[in-house]
Structure formats: structure tokens, C-alpha cells
Amino acid sequence: MSHSLTLICPLPNGIHARPASRIAEFCAGFGAAIRWRNQRNGQLADAKSVLSLIGGDILFNDVVDIEIAGEASELVAIELGRFLRQTLPHCDAPLAAEPAACRALPRGLAELSPLPCFGQPAGQGVAIGELRVHQGFSMPEPERLPLSGEPDLEREALEVACLALAERLQREAERLRGEAASVSRAHLAIVRDPDFRARLEAAVAAGAGAARAVAAAVAHYRAQLAGSASEYLREREIDIRDVGRRLLGMLLPEEAPAEAEWPAAALLWAEELAPGELLALDRGRVRGLLLARGGASSHTVILARAFSLPVLTGVPRTAIAGGVGRTAVLDAGLGALFQDPDAAVLDYYREEEALLASKRLRLAQASGGTSTSADGQRLELAVNIASAAEAQLGFAQGADGVGLFRTEALFMDADAPPSEDAQFQCYAEVVRLAAGRPVIIRSFDIGGDKPARCLPAPPEANPFLGYRAIRMYPDQQAAFRAQLRAVLRASELGPVKLMIPMVATLGEARWARRVLDEERDALGVAEAVPMGIMLEVPSVLFQLDAFCREVDFFSVGSNDLTQYLFAADRDNERVGQLYDSLHPAFLAALSQAVATIHRHGRWIGLCGEAAAAPQALPLLLGIGFDELSMSAPSLQPCRRRLRELDAGRCRALLARALQCVDGVEVRALVDGDAVRPALPMLTADCLMPAAAWRSKAAVIKGMVDRLWLLERCDDRYGMEEDLWLREQAYSTGLGHGFAIPHAKSGHVLHPTLCVARLAEPVDWGASDGQPVDMVLLLAFNAADAGSAHLKFFSRLARLVMREDFRRALRAERDPERLLILLRERLEREA
Prior knowledge:
Blueprint: E1 2-8, H1 17-27, E2 33-38, E3 44-46, H2 50-55, E4 63-69, H3 73-87, H4 107-110, E5 116-118, E6 120-123, E7 126-133, H5 151-175, H6 178-192, H7 194-205, H8 210-226, H9 231-235, H10 237-251, E8 266-270, H11 275-280, E9 286-291, H12 299-306, E10 311-313, H13 317-320, E11 327-331, E12 336-339, H14 343-367, E13 380-385, H15 388-396, E14 402-406, H16 409-412, H17 420-434, E15 439-442, H18 477-491, E16 496-500, H19 506-523, E17 531-535, H20 544-548, E18 553-556, H21 558-565, H22 584-599, E19 603-606, H23 617-623, E20 627-630, H24 635-644, H25 647-657, H26 663-672, E21 687-691, H27 696-709, H28 716-729, E22 733-735, E23 738-739, E24 742-745, E25 752-762, E26 772-781, H29 788-800, H30 803-811, H31 815-829
Parallel strand pairs: 7-8, 8-9, 9-10, 13-14, 13-20, 14-15, 15-16, 16-17, 17-18, 18-19, 19-20, 21-25, 23-26, 24-26
Antiparallel strand pairs: 1-4, 2-3, 2-4, 5-12, 6-10, 7-11, 11-12, 22-23, 25-26
């Protein structure tokens, strides 16, 4: 019995390593044979093999015939069809748009007359270092490698190498995050791929040695991908080669290139760089990358962005031939490389490095300390994790605790449920890292979109509404009780809470409590572990008073609660407009739930995607949650935004949001409401009484940089150009050594007066021909300036015409007294 399906490939980048690994993982759970045929080229592919799928050269909008034959083929067809409709379109996260190289240099840099060469920026940042060439690994031709001496020994050597590399890739995937982790998982799928392993076996059986078999397999897949009609898929060839390189390094360590010694700061040029080669570099010394080949979609560039390395691509060897071994500057924001720069350009970029370091420091300081709003309302910011490595990253970003430990990651790739001891070691490591901060461990949420081989379940027509999470526990009591014992043991090392997912009835909560108490008594654990539930099934909302008597805390799973509340599958594009966590109905449900739970003295957090959404934060603060939990990279920006918000104004905003018609109206309301306090137009940190800039261009750049550092403008290059457009129309030098550069710019976040006294006067093209030593920069936002811009400019200009004001401004050196002087004179002039 067989069944067939037809797929029109929905992925703009086609079926490459990352989506192929998801497809193969899904199909591997079925006993039926699943074959794909690309109508465009006739290529056949085994859907359980990553490499076979990649070799099918399936591009965007290609039509694919899928044949399913064998065990339960009808049910497989139903499940696979659902996966292809709902999950596959989201298996390849959209890549960040490549920033365009800015070939018109900023004026402060252009006046130094540097001689840049340009590339395509693939990561932001600035780096100064010695330009060096990376001697990359060259995959040897199979014929150069030895034939088999003893087939059994060669097979054993291959098996050992593949297992060792798989273990290393698994550790990398756990240590990294986001797209960087998905790169390691894709390479792991290649190592485990049945087609790849079968090809290695066949080569050994035909007389090849282990190393020769690897080289032959890599050559085969490289040839396959080289013929692809997609440049993106041709680029994936480096992933196959990287896996082969790492295997050969284990099989023939003597053939591996010697580890290079880099200077204290190096800019590394390479024809191309494999992801594994980047991971092996000393990133404390390698400060930036220049690649001849590789675009924003290459896995190497994805990793480099994750490590905050500035990168330029499309830089040929000829472009850097004369600069190797000399100092160079890489500016990925401008897409430029400056080789052998003179002292003036180096000084410019040392200031850039200092500016960027100050920006990072201010972000860390603004997001450090307690998680409170501007008016003192506490809101814990915790981290969502699946491993100790993610916990470590979260605590490094200032997490107040672990709000969601997704333990199902321990079950997903296992052939048997993890043992109690294995789980205890994992949980204990996180609790130790937390160092007294709370850790909420969620019991395994298997099912829905998270199947696990070790806890098999029959195919279902609607798995999200089916046999998952707590609904599975009575049938899998051994696994559930082992997890409870591991959690209870970890709780003796620090504050641990247990959270049960997908609870829909009071009976389920009582059953889970009873089993937890039984295991606690059996272990003799003295302290009770608080037990809470995920609030994600709408039925709980209507029995909250009763649930508050049964459980200790709640955490909203906003992803599932949203889709269940609106009966809209979040992965189905056709009903995607219904899935909206900022819809007034959803906000009303949250608001009522928090009020009820707090009335009973219980604690409630939120750990879904909405927790990190900037537009949601004012509303969630207004609702009154005790905690928000999110991914580690979101913590610092969220804490900084929180500390700018006024909780009282957020509660008023929420009241208005609840009266809106839909989420679109709510978003417009949030965007148009100034729930964060406005910054004063003039503050002491906007005053620079001893600036050392030596040209008009340097002054404008330096003052705009100060606005950007203080988060008063969002694009310093755009703001700088807006000021120059005004200067081109007429000089803002008013005479008497004063200039008032000014602009209404869309890049201004807060109206600002910035004042600089120059150590040495500079030519400004002023009306009286005199150089300028006092600069008063005036910045307003183009959208809301109105006539205020001209009125304020007129007040300043009238003051500058008065000798007593000019003398007083020049004489005052203390920023605080200078601030008082300016405020008094401006108020008097109003």
C-alpha cells in the first residue's frame, strides 16, 4: 500500500542542510519508506537522508512528488502533509538582510583622504589588526589516500571518528545559540546521515581505507552540489567539505595543517573559511574576517555574526596582496578595508573603537542592576534555557533566574528516556550556576511539534490538541517519576520549582501533586518543591480560583495560549492573522488572570515569545506580571527598556488598549504613546567643555557620536549627513566664534541641545570670517519639531549676539554650573 503527496517548495533558499536535517529527523520516526522526486530535474531523494535531500537540488517553487510506501503509509501521509504545510515553511529562519556597503565615506573620515578597498559587509563592527592570510585546509583527492589494509579495522576507525565528531558537534550545538546552534546541528545531521554512512561503508567494502572513503564521499556530494541551479545550494558544499575535513583530522592527524600563530590582533583573509575552521580559531586574537567567497547566508558568516566578528566578503586576494603583514582597519559598517593607514586614520578608528566600547558599556550598565521600571515597579527578567550552556549565557546577561528550563531537549534525540542520574547532573549544573537564583524546571513537554523516539506516540490528526505533555505522563510514569526524583534531588542544591505543562483540569494538577509528594516521601527530601503549571489551556482561565488552591505558581505560555484562545494554528499561514498576542481579547485574558492570581497571593510569570516583544513590554508591565522569561540575547535590551518605562503610565496605556478593536490598533496605540519619560533637552552629559577636535567635520562627527552614545539619535551617519545638508545650504557659523549647526532629522529620538568648547578654534566658514571655538548643536525630530525648532534656534541666536552671554559661556568650565547657566539664560529668553 502506498500514498503520494505533492510539495511546492516554500523555502526561498531551497532544501539545504538546515531544513533538510529537520525533514530527515521528522521522517526518521516512521517505518515507511519516503521518496522525493524533483519534477524539474528528475532527481530522487530519500527523505530520511539529509545528503540525499540536498542532492535533490530542490529550489524555491520546485514541484516535488512524494511517495510513501510500507508501514502505516496512510497515517504517515497525513502527518507528513501536515508537517510540510505547517512546519517546513518555518524550518529556515529568514536571514538578516545583508547591509549595503556605504561607499560614500562619512565626511569626518573622507577629509583624511584614506584609500579604502570595498567589500560586502556581512557583520557590523570595527577592527584594527595585522593583515594575515589563512592557509585553509585543502581536501585531498581520494587517489592520494591509502587503500584498505584491513576492512574491519577501517570500518572501526570510521565508526570511532564519526562518533567522536558527532559528540563534538552535539556539544557545540548545546554551547551555541540561535542560528549558530542550527549550523552545528546541520553538520551533526550530515555525520549521522544514513546515505553518508552507507557511502563510507561501500567505499571500504570496495577496498578504500577509512580516510580515502571519507574523501571519496565528500567528492561525490561536492560534485552533486556543484551542478545545482542555485548559488545558495552550491555554497552549501563547504558544509560537506567541513564535515569531511574534521573526520580526516581524526583519521589522519598528521595530515592536518599546523596550527597557525596569530599576532595579538589579526585581520584574517581567506579564500573561504569553513564553519569548523572558524570555531577552531583563537577568537581572542582574530578580530575580523575578510573572505573572497561567502555571502550573508553562508554558515561561516552566520557563526561570525554570532561571535560579533566584523566580516567583509567578496575581497579577492589581489586586493590585499600589498598589505599582508601590515596594520589594517576593517570597518564592516562601511564595507571598507583601509590598508597601511596613516596616523590620522588610525586615530580616527581608535576613537571609533573607544566609542563602540563605550556604547557596549552603557548598554551593560543601563541593563544591569535590578529589573525595575522608572517609577520603581519590580519585574523579574529570567532566561529560557535548554542546557547549562544557555543558563551560563543568561546569567552572564544578568538573568534574575531561569524562568523556563525546557527539559524535553534531554529526551528528543535519545533512544531511551534519560536516567534519573543523567537528569540530576544536568539540573544540578544549572542550579549551581544559578547561585541562589530561582530555577523553574518544566517537566518534559513531548508531543505536538516535539516528538521523541524514546516516548513513541501514534500519529494524530491534530497533535497540538492531542497526546502531549501531562496527558502522556500516566502512560509514561517511569519516565515522569524518574524526572521528578532528579528535580527533587537538584532542589536540595538551591531554589528549584517544578512546572507542569499543558494542564487543562484540576484533576491533572492534583494527580501531578500526588505523584510529586510520593516521590518526595520516598527520597526523604525535607523541603517541599513548589509546583506550578503552565497557563496555556484556556479552560484554566475559568477555574483560576480553584487552581490557586491547588498549585503554587503559574507561568503563561503565550505561544500556546494564543493559538488555543483564537483556535488558530500559529504555524498555519492561512490563519496567521488570527494568532495575535497583542489582541485586546488576549490582553484582557492575561489581565484578568494576573488580577485573580495575585488576589490569592500567588506568583505569575510569562515565558512565551511575547515576553521579549518590545511593543508588548509596556502592556505586560501594565498588567502586573511578576516575571518575564526570554532568550539570553533579549535580556539586556529588555531590562534597558523596562528601566525607561513608567508603570503607572503603562497601566493607563493598558486600559486604552483593552478598548481597541484588534492588535493592529493596539500596536499603533503603543507606538504613538510616550510611555517612557522624555529626556530633558539639555543635560550635563550633553556638554563638552574641552573638546580636542581639529576640523569642522571632526566636530560634527564627534557631537553626533555623543548624541548616538546617549541614545538621542538612532543613526549617526544619517544624522551627520542631515547636518551637512544644512551646512551646504548656508554656514551655521554666526560670528564671534560661535556656530549653531542644526537639523530636523528623522534620526533624532529626543530633542537635544549639545554644547562643545573647542581646545583650538576651527574654520567654519562663518559670516565674519572668524574661526569657531564654541559649537551649540541643535537637533529636533523631523516628525514632531513643528515650529519649535525655529523658535529655539531664534532664542539661541539672540543669546549668541550678546557679549555677556558669550563671555560667560566661554569662562565656565564646570559642566554642572555650565548647565545651570544655559538653563537660566534660555528660560529668561523664552
